[in-house]
Amino acid sequence: NFHSPLKYAIYQHLLHSILPFLAYLGLVFYQIISKNFLLFSAVGFLSIHSSCGKCFFIKILSTTFIDK
């Protein structure tokens, strides 16, 4: 039981860093097609490095596609 909090912390870190990053890569590909790569890459980079990347990323995702 000593290692279970550590494993949970690692799992939470992966959940909040890798999943938004994979979704970010998909949106970068979308933005390259839409020719808005430079602006969105800066915003997406901030979403990865925010304190809660997943929540911030969902906001960007919703606003980006609503504006289109």
From TrEMBL:
Keywords: Membrane, Transmembrane, Transmembrane helix. The keyword Transmembrane helix applies. The chain crosses the membrane at residues 14-33, 39-61. This is Uncharacterized protein.
